[in-house]
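Researcher: Quick test of sequence recovery. Tokens follow.
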């Protein structure tokens, strides 16, 4: 189990620890608007770089979401973190009791501990991925709406 966790950590570090790609065809936008849309978003919330939000949520699920202004989503990750920690601790205590009593259910209790530990780890990974995506979408206009219209779906954008 410990080898698998170490391998996962090394894999995460290798996948995220490289410089960003810079494409030649990407050029700076020379046309300036009077007030960019991103400025209004950054005024209301703290701007966080996507990799910074990823590392925050990998360290403590919900932290990256809170920094990107998604408190409810962050709270959901924190609550699930608490549930998985509590259930892992409870399963370990029950395993110790089963060891003392010499019960035959010891193997299933060990499996239960592993299951909760895996859910615990996935919570960290999903929180990191969600924070990374949320940080990328911080500048996305909130006025964009998807609506059902006769004959299909429609997209509407409010322009100031």
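Model:
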């Amino acid at each position: 189990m410990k080898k698998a966790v170490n391998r996962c950590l090394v894999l995460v570090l290798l996948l995220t620890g490289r410089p960003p790609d810079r494409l030649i065809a990407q050029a700076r936008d020379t046309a300036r608007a009077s007030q960019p849309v991103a400025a209004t978003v950054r005024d209301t919330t703290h701007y966080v770089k996507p990799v910074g939000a990823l590392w925050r949520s990998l360290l403590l699920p919900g932290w990256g979401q809170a920094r990107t202004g998604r408190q409810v989503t962050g709270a959901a990750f924190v609550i699930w973190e608490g549930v998985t920690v509590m259930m892992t601790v409870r399963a370990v205590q029950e395993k110790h009791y089963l060891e003392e009593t010499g019960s035959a259910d010891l193997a299933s209790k060990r499996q239960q501990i592993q299951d909760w530990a895996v859910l615990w780890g996935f919570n960290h990974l999903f929180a990191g991925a969600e924070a990374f995506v949320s940080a990328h979408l911080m500048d996305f206009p909130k006025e964009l709406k998807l609506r059902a219209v006769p004959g299909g779906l429609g997209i509407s954008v409010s322009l100031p």
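The first strand starts at residue 145 and ends at 149.
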